[in-house]
Design goal:
alpha+beta; Aminopeptidase; 7-stranded mixed sheet; 5 helices; about 30% helix; globular; Acyl_CoA_acyltransferase; GNAT family N-acetyltransferase; GNAT_dom; acyltransferase
Length: about 160
């Protein structure tokens, strides 16, 4: 159903930027400027300090017709060897409400379990109640409230046991 294209070059950056631009409502939660190709590049390459490069994954997710529907970013083995930290999941707003986000997460949870991960964590912006409800609806539980992220944003950290 979904194709996960691992982004390793800038070839797909224009498609990712177009998806970002259609979802400016998400970015407006944490920034006042428009999204740019430089931001796409930063998102593709940014990761926790001391994370092995092969453990940083950024995907453009498409349907069977290669239509971009989402982006997913995660770090394997962070903050510990058996945890995956999802840094970003954006389902294009033109596809929201169809259950695609839930299906993507379900596929990823199964994948993480199959490679020996035990937990999944995510930080949700404090001013994103829809995002918080989405992740809690999938069984993620808040383990830290009102924490400052590495970017300085106020977040809630959620965890899911596989």
């Amino acid at each position: 159903m979904f194709q996960y294209l691992l982004i390793e070059t800038d070839e797909k950056y224009p498609e990712i930027l177009a998806l970002y631009e259609r979802n400016q409502d998400f970015f407006a939660l944490s920034q006042s400027s428009a999204v740019t190709l430089a931001q796409v590049d930063a998102d593709v390459h940014a990761g926790p300090e001391n994370l092995a490069p092969e453990n940083k994954k950024y995907f453009l997710i498409t349907d069977d017709n290669e239509t971009p529907i989402a982006v997913l970013d995660y770090a394997l083995g962070y903050p510990d060897d058996q945890t995956v930290f999802i840094g970003l999941l954006i389902v294009d707003k033109i596809f929201r409400g169809q259950g695609l986000g839930h299906k993507i997460v379900a596929e990823q949870l199964a994948h993480f379990r199959s490679i020996g991960m035990r937990k999944v964590r995510i930080a949700v912006l404090d001013n994103n109640p829809a995002g918080l409800a989405f992740w809690q609806g999938l069984g993620f539980e808040i383990i830290e409230k009102n924490k400052h992220s590495t970017d300085g944003d106020l977040v809630h950290v959620l965890s899911y046991t596989l």
